[in-house]
Amino acid sequence: MKMQTGELLYKGKAKSIYRTEKDDELLAVFRDDITAFNGEKKDEFAGKGEYNFAASAFFFDFLEKNGVKTHYLRAVDERSMVVSKLDMIPLEVIARNRAAGSIVKKFPFKEGQILNPPVISTDYKDDERGDPPINDDLVVALCLLTPDELMNVRETTLKINRILSDFFEELGLILVDFKIEFGRKDGIIVLGDEISMDSMRLWDRETMESFDKDVYRYDKGDFMSAYARVVEKINQWKDSHME
Ligand code: 5GP
Predict the structure, then answer these.
(1) To 5 degrees, how large is the angle CA 8–CA 13–CA 15?
(2) Does 125 contact ligand 1 (Cβ within 6 A)?
(3) From atom 24 of ligand 1, which residue's Cα is the shortest distance away?
(4) Domains located in the chain, CATH noted
(5) At what angle do helices 48-65 and 223-240 cross, to 10 degrees?
(6) Residue 112 has what pLDDT?
(7) Cα(48) to centroid of ligand 1, in Å?
(8) Average model confidence (pLDDT) for the chain?
(9) Which residue numbers delimit the SAICAR synthetase/ADE2 N-terminal domain (predicted)?
C-alpha cells in the first residue's frame, strides 16, 4: 500500500519527514542516502533505506513489546512508517558496551575494551556546532530536560541497551554502541528517530567484523552486504519466533 505523502516538513541526512492527514502523526521515509563525518562523506545506494527501515520497524516494535514507549505506529511500505509526532529533544544519547569510535580517540581506552557498567553519554544535536558533548548540568541549564526527565532518559537508555544487547547476542553479534533520540508526546518522554545500522556499532562475536556504518565510514568492505546480513539475521529470528 502506497501512502499519499503530505508536505515535506524536514529532510534529514537519511530520512524525510512528511505531514499526514492527522495532526499528531507523521510519515518517516527512509531514503537511500548515507553520510558520515557530519556530511563530509556522502553517497546513495539503492535499497539502503529499506534495510534501515526494516531494522528500525522491527526494533521499535520489539522495544514496545518490552515496555519501552516509542513513536512507531505502523509500517506503510518497505521504507515508510507512520510515527507519532513528538517534540524532539536535541540530544543524541549514546550507550556504549565496548570502547570504539570517538571515545577511543578522546580517552585512553583500548579499541574493543569492555565497558561494564555501560557508559551513557550525551551530545548536543547541532550540526553547525559539530554535535558537542554535553553534561547533565548543561542539559538542565538549557532547559532541554528536567532533572526527573534526565533520570528517565538514562534509565530508559539502559533498559533499551539491555534489551537490544540480549537480542543481538542471540544473533551472534555484539552491540558495541548505539545512538538514540527522544522527544515528548503529551509531556511524556518517548523514543523517536530511528534504530538502525546507521546509528549503532555491531561486531561479529567470533571475528569482530563490523556490520554497521563503520564499514562505509572506513571503507572496510561492502556495507550494503553487511546491512543485508543484519536484516537477514533479524528475519531469521522473526521466523524462528513466530507463534
Ligand atoms: P561515536 O561517538 O563513536 O562517533 O558514535 C557512537 C555511536 O553513536 C555509533 O554507533 C554511531 O554510529 C552513533 N552516532 C553518533 N553520532 C551519530 C549521528 O549523528 N548520527 C547517527 N546516525 N549515529 C550516530
Answers:
(1) 50
(2) no
(3) 199
(4) 8-84 (3.30.200.20), 87-222 (3.30.470.20)
(5) 40
(6) 98
(7) 18
(8) 96
(9) 8-233
